[in-house]
Amino acid sequence: MKRCNHSQHQEFDGSIMTPWFTYELSRQSTTAETQNNIVAGRWLFRFDNHNLIQSRQAAAVCPYFIEDDEDEMIDDVLLSCFNCMQRRWLIDGFECVGLPLNQPLVE
Amino acid sequence: MTTTWLICIDDTDDIGTKGTGEIAEEIMHLIMAKSVVRSVNDRKVKHATWVTRHQLFVHPDIPYTSHNSAMCFELESDLSLSQIKQLCIAHLVAESAAVADPGLAIVDKHALTADDCHQLIGFGVDAKQMVKTKNEAYQLAKTVNVDLSEHGGTGQGVIGALAGIGLRLSGNDGRLKGQVSVGLSAEIPSVLLSVDQITEQCGLDGVMDVNGQMLNGNEQVLLSGKVKAVFHGHLFLLLAYQVPDPKTGALQWCNALRQQLKKY
């Protein structure tokens, strides 16, 4: 099973994943809270559930990829967000629960 | 005297823990080991019984981990309901994730009336497209005599467990857990088998193309990668599609891609 090593990227804030994911705050927050990164949000995949190319490109650079149970994989290429244990399916997309829950410095 | 049991579990896992399918398979083998009569699918291949995975609704109001699927299996056993339930619960409690909300549904398949089946299938179909409640699940379970129980956390898993029973009864839902064994390895990355050979070797009921047409027994199928099967028309079927042979251009049957399996 391919697993990420979180100890190697403690300072990672998810910025490099912003071509594929957008960070959405979970509720209305004050400016001070947002500036201090104390309001948790969630990372939403920018593309639909059929976009294999973007899913593979994202996983190729993501340090948080963890291979999911074989029965839950839907891409024939292993290294794909669609095959990652940390993707949580939504009605028309998925959120990544592996990326750090602090607002990226760059989006 | 034996009974044909349908058993389904849901909401047992968390990120990084043992999957629900694996736990279901382990429970199935535990029961089989204690039973005189083995699985109903034990015709030609020993232990060739199948756990089916049933996809349920994903919605913000449903507290699933990452995919919201239930795992169901059928077996024939001389054990009583209480003996089977005891085995299931002991393993569920031991193997479920600490934060999981496990649910367990057990029913004597042949004790269900046509109306019971109709109601259970309806519940399963609904659970694929709308939010259902624990109360609804318990009410239906009581009506149709399904033994439904929760084993930790919020117990929300009872909804998926009951829905999985209904979807398995429908005969038209789900992928089979795991891969179909056709002898592939690093040294043998692909193999060409006839449909008859596939059914003989793997214990499947046939091969169907992605448009729902059954293949004839003498059709040749090139098998490679992850070989997966689906549950359709109350049959366990390999799914196949046609691609042109790169050398000759002739159409060749191949086992389906994961994207093609996704809708099951």
UniProtKB/TrEMBL annotation, chain A:
This is Uncharacterized protein. It comes from Shewanella algicola. The lineage of its organism: Bacteria, Pseudomonadati, Pseudomonadota, Gammaproteobacteria, Alteromonadales.
TrEMBL record, chain B:
One of its GO terms (molecular function) is DNA binding. The keyword DNA-binding applies. Keywords: DNA-binding. The keyword DNA-binding applies. It comes from the Bacteria. This is DNA-binding protein.
